[in-house]
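Researcher: I'm comparing several assemblies side by side, and this is the next one on my list. It has 811 residues spread over two chains. Same procedure as the others: predict the full complex and return the structure.
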Amino acid sequence: MHPLLKRQIRDHFPSNGDTVPEECKGLFGLIDEAYRQHDRDRAMLERSLDVSSREYFERNAEVKRELVERKRVEEELKRAKEQAEEASMLKDKFVSLVSHDLRTPFASILGLLRLLKSDTVHPLHEDQKALLQHVLKIGEGLVDMIDRLLDIGKLKTGRIRPQMRFVDAADVALKVIGGLNHAASGKDIKLVSEITKGSRIFTDPDLYSEVIHNLVSNSVKFSERGGQIIISLIENGASIAVKDGGKGIRAEDQSRIFRHEEKTCTPGTEGEMGSGLGLPFSMDIMEALGGSITVDSEPGRGSVFVAKLSKVRPLVMVVEDDQLTRMLLVDYLGQMEVDVIEAENGEDALTILSTTHPHLLITDINMPEMDGFKLLEKLKEDKETQGLPIIVITSDDSIETRERAFQLGADDFCGKPPVKHDLLPRVSRLLD
Amino acid sequence: MKVEQRRWASKEGWRPYSLDSIGDSAQLVLMFGSGSAIKRPEPAERLKSLYPAAHIIGCSTSGQILGARVFSDSITATAVQFERTHISLAQVRINEVHDSHEAGGALASAFEHEKLAHVLVFSDGLRVNGSELVRCMWETLPYGVAVTGGLASDGLRFNDNVVCLDGEAEEGKIIAVGLYGENIKTAFSSRCGWYPFGIDRVVTRSSGNELLELDGKPAYDLYAEYLGELADEMPATASLLPLNLRIETEGLDLVRAAVAVNKDRRSLTFAGGMPEGATARLMRGSAERILKGAADAARGLQKSAGGKPAELALIVSGTGRKVALGQRVEEEVEAARDELGDKTALAGFYSYGEISPVSPHAPYEMKNNTITITTFLES
């Protein structure tokens, strides 16, 4: 019997010693069982708590050890990353510095050699001239390589920052063709642009032209005499493709040609040499422009290189308090390939501009809250919006108003109510 | 539907427990008894003479529920006379635990699916992997037909485990009753009331129902450590520490209780599958939470049967609950009755595994240490 129950019986039935009356035995049996179950439950609960606490303690200690270890590894990784980044930056700076210090004397040497070659007072023998021509060719190749290294250095050290805007892809193609016509006609190769005027792409025109120049120049190098190189826009209309019928690239080489460390330098069809840095550098540029270069090629069947850019639809912001005029402007702009965002006054426009980046802004002058002049001032003060082209549109087309608008940095001016054939060409011009 | 209930005790034989008398119009008798009592042939023979037209089905149990009472050493009988419902029976035998899935399929295929409304199942509780059994039934039966029931048991003896059909009490048997027609309305609910404690563990080695290792350590050793001197009384005492099993790939969260131990293999065998990779946590039960679980399970059942009180409620409750509640075990049935009201006849048993879907139209599951209530109403 449970000791407590035994004591209770002894105290309550003193006359019976420690036994209970016969008729109560069954009941006390049940009570005894309940006491024991209570004790058992309690013992089990306490034991469970003890074992469980110990397990928690052990597991926590393990987690703590893991955390400390993870932190140590993280720190190590962080240090290693910082070191690698620092080394990479130092390397870029070093390359850029050395290249620059090399280029100046080298260019002078080449200049002097050219002088020597063209000296009419003491003309050189033909074989001497040929020798000098050879030296000059190698020297020019070296300067070209130094130029590339310098450009790569500038991109990597952030001294070149892309200035994105809408440009006409046809102009890019024409500029590239103009620059390479001489080299191409030397191999009797035809450069053809299939891009129609007014094909708008969103990019940094100088950097992107450089890439297309490299791609076309490569195509010239690897095309047979009498070939043809076609510059066109790819389907989405946002990127330029360069297609040649040259000797093509093996599948296994197609990714290597974009890597700096590979510096693949294959001679052209007529033994032309290059720095091997053109494509890696072009890839760097495209990455800085938020794009990439893809290649589709097969040995013997030519190559198509695409300098891929994202498709961006021009976004025009209309700031105008008069709802009717605003609707009219939105309607006109709807006839162009642009998206439109509306603001009711200068204050409203600035709020929207803190999160949205339009490519052109058209603003009225007389508006409540903040007028057009104040808006112009604010936009030109802010680094983020300084470069945003602005067309001022107002019914007050007095000389004073015009002058003030232009002084504050407006790019164009338009009377009110706006006339479609007057406004749209101005929009188009500023977007390109 | 009419219900007549009786109780058998060795000295007294069958005594009426309710006022109704349906005699030879009963089609089905549910019989639940202690392992030793139900294996005797006379009670079933006598019952057959009382209800000559009825199929008598049932199983060994750890406790018999009749009205709001719980008995340990008797047999209870609940005779049912359906007025507009047709029933059909199926049974299979199983030798190996690995055949559980197949057995479920065979059982479910034995029923005509047309107009099938509900299936009750009573299965051997030691040789069957309950979760595999119901998984295949779920795969085979038409969508919308629920399966409820339980696994036979034998208190903490884990010995006499039989399922009976018309006088034959056998081990390794599984019986199912199909209820047909639009007039039978069933509702069911299942609650636990046990709560997990301690650290999460991962099932690192198992084979079907047999749990060998948790976190790379023998399962037996873990239980021995938690149970202390009560470890010698396993598997009985292990039922006080069921496992909360989470199988994340299947979105399952179940309670599993041990039904056997193997000291040499340092393993425990559970009533359902213990898949490797599942997360397990030990559980505890307190009387208050277990009783609340019972009330919660019963609450709302009458509402879901259209507000009219059900004529019969089948209560299948876990053996672990009975052990944990001890002398308070009837309070669990009282808690259910308080919610169901006194117009509904209560019958049921304490089992090694309770079967029901988590919710209507969800897959059927076999759980432990829960209370599962199914109500029946004929319109």
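Model: For your comparison table: The mean pLDDT of chain A is 86.
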